[in-house]
Amino acid sequence: MKQISYKTSGVCSREIHIEVEDGVITSCAFVGGCHGNTQGVAALVTGMKVEDAIAKLSGIDCRGRGTSCPDQLAKALREAAE
Fold first, then answer.
1. 45-64, pLDDT tens digit by residue?
2. Dihedrals phi, psi of 51, to nearest 5 degrees
3. How far apart are CA 38 and CA 28, in angstroms?
4. Alpha-carbon gap, residue 17 to 30, rounded angstroms
5. CB atoms closer than 10 angstroms to residue 29
């Protein structure tokens, strides 16, 4: 199992904690941010393959910031896969 703690940038959430096992996200939790939205994203990606989550979440923008909490999750997963 791989545990990832990712410091976010340009969004309301401050950090994302992720656990990945055999290429599947087994746990995801955001620190800060829009609580309902981040809980929803975390619930949706749990059980999802890492590459599928990256494909679905990359490039999502929040209010013209050029990124979002889902996009930051995709960046965290991409970095962890390298």
1. 999 999 999 999 999 999 99
2. -65, -30
3. 9
4. 6
5. 14
Q: Which two tokens stand for residue 48?
A: 């999802």
Average pLDDT, the chain: 97
CATH superfamily of domain region 2-81: CO dehydrogenase flavoprotein, C-terminal domain (3.30.390.50)
pLDDT-derived band at 31 (thresholds 50, 70, 90) equals very high
Residues 6+ apart with CB under 8 A from 57: 41, 45, 70, 71, 73, 74
Q: For the chain, what are the domain ranges?
A: 2-81
| Closest among 77, 32, 39, 34 to 55, alpha carbons compared | 77
DSSP state of 49: B
% of the chain surpassing 90 pLDDT: 96
Amino acid occupying residue 67: T
Question: What is the value of pTM for the model shown?
Answer: 0.96
